[in-house]
Automatic annotation (TrEMBL):
This is Uncharacterized protein. Residues 1-33 are annotated as: Disordered. Residues 20-30 have a biased composition (Gly residues). Residues 1-15 have a biased composition (Basic and acidic residues). It comes from Streptomyces pactum.
Length: 74
């Protein structure tokens, strides 16, 4: 099965939850919606967010690259 057939999540949890609203390092955020985007961050794990929390995470999450590196994961 290719990465494309797998929904772009080869080797990853297909039910990943949103880490929003701002990608707190203490654990997943309060959202719980399925993550649709991966936001690249400097010296941190990528932040997985839903469409609602994409904008706030770009503005307020720690270590977000600029220009932001955003990837659609589903």
């Amino acid at each position: 099965m290719t990465d494309r057939e797998n929904g772009g999540l080869a080797g990853r949890d297909r039910t990943a939850s949103c880490g929003g609203p701002y990608g707190g390092e203490s654990g997943p955020g309060d959202c719980g919606d399925p993550a649709r985007f991966e936001v690249a961050r400097h010296l941190r794990a990528p932040l997985w967010v839903c469409p609602v929390h994409l904008g706030p995470s770009l503005l307020l999450a720690d270590g977000v690259l600029w220009p932001p590196g955003i990837r659609l994961v589903r």
